Amino acid sequence: MNGTEQIPRAKKKYDPAEMLNASDIRQYMYCPRIIYFNYVVVVPRHTTLKMEKGKTAQEDFSRLEKRRTLAKWGLEDGQREFHVPVKSEKMGLYGVLDMVITSDSGLYPVEYKNTLGRVGIHHKYQLIAYAMMLEEERRRPVREGFIYLIPQNRLEKFLVDEGARFYTKKICTQMRNLIDTQTFPEATRKRERCKDCEFRNYCRDT
Description:
Strand content: 15-25%
Largest sheet: 6 strands, mixed
CATH architecture: Alpha-Beta Complex
Order of helices and strands: EHHHEEEHEEH
CATH topology: Lambda Exonuclease, Chain A
Low-confidence stretches: none
Number of domains: 1
Structural class: alpha/beta
Radius of gyration: 18 Å
CATH class: Alpha Beta
Distance between the termini: 8 Å
Shape: globular
Mean pLDDT: 86
Number of helices: 5
Oligomer: single chain
């Protein structure tokens, strides 16, 4: 903390009926304090350069993807939808999927990530949440999903199995408990993540 920012006042009591965004799952697993600063206290939000670059890269990929075949997804045919809003009343979640592929073999949620290295576990469970919402809305089983790493031009496939579904629901419960109790959580153990965080100045110990 730089001495000028103070942890802001708490918001009104959290309403359990309030829906959370699927991206909150990714944020919570990246660092629980992001959820605290988004839902428990009033903190100004700032768009970082990293966010802007990621948004631009995803928009460019969507534009190019419209003209490509489905070969890299391992599919012979199918229809693509882009920027697909989904929600689940059961889970209390909503969000916007980067892409959905509908084929005879099934429904496939797709997320793009403008990141280097392997797909993080926080990205995986955001995708699983999207898969569960898509399944509930379309009333059709979703067994697999994809995350596409734009900088590396690499695709990773994930199974939407019972274990992944259970853990996703568990994360949702943990997030709601954090918000409801207004508990200031421990920061991520991976302190290198703090470098580009928009909330860094509000943490006293990073």
